[in-house]
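lol ok so funny story. i was supposed to be doing the assay writeup but got distracted and ended up predicting the structure for this chain instead. priorities right. anyway since i did it might as well share w the group, maybe its usefull for someone
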Amino acid sequence: MDDFFHGQLGILFRQWPCYAPAHRANQPALYPLPAMKPVSPSQKTALICGIGGQDGAYLAAHLLDLGYAVCGTSRDASANQLENLSRLGIRERVSVESMSLVDFRSTMQVLSRIQPDEIYNLAGQTSVVISFEQPVETFESIVVGTVNLLESIRMLGKPIRLYNAGSAEMFGTIGAEPAHERSVLRPRSPYAIAKATSYWQIAQYRDTYGIRAATGILFNHESPLRPERFVTQKIVAAACRIAAGEQQVLTLGDLSVRRDWGWAPEYVVAMHTMLQLDSVEDFVIATGLTSSLEEFVAEAFCALGLDWRTHVVHDPNLMRANDNSCGRADTSHATQRLHWTARHRMPDVARMMVEARLAQAALSVRRAA
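and the output, tada:
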């Protein structure tokens, strides 16, 4: 029985209603899963740098469903448990290589050995807040890592396609006009500056050397796989604990900041689709709708039958330095060229994260009984 419930939770994380492409709508349960099969000559191989994170795990699941052989990288493959892959029920179907993106020799060796058809660069320091405390680490992990991948592809001379993870943070405070692929970049944090630099690196290698590389400029996208250091999961976790009587209040900073929040499992579909174009290019990926943090809080607490105003406390010390006040996106290019449109908006995201948290808690109770 324990295996059954663990498997059902994995499906819950992967196949929430309407998140996946139509071809997966009636897919049967994927638990237990077979061991990884040898790669056939006609099978595409994808290398995912940063496979242990939210996007890497969901992307791996999506590519496996499409028939890819999937390999991930970690600085120490033997030590990294890759818990997100296990939560999705796909750990045994993914191979993992030890690789450091900031080490050119390590990067070159893995690419030579794996011979991937596609590379997805989702690695690097991912926190805006931490980037102010660790600007050098942030810059090196994002910028040097991107250059090493581009140089390795150039020197190998193989028709490898490269997806680079950009960020809406590159735009800075956007103002009245929504951001699109031709908008001016005004990064306001070490993280955003590093992402903007890697964005221009991709463009330069694409234009100069003909490398098929593209940057996905993704606005905020969330899921149950988010760690609690991200504010959305912090809110969801606290709301669930408050509903269970385990916590009294939630302390937050600026509730007026506005973001475009989407559903992460949808966004990885866009990543893959970008690399399938004959002529690869950069895309803004978002829902096109903006909500305040206060609205996200309200939706999460509402999903639990709670009034957030009686449980949330404002703390000015949690205000982020040099924060972007608003994030707005123009998604028309992705709609026209990729035929991709986000199917879930912020209220759906908040509700599904709460439901997943409750399901995880119920499973933990059942396993402990």
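Residues 346-368 form the longest helix (23 residues). Confidence is low (pLDDT under 50) at residues 1-8, 15-37.
back to the writeup now i swear
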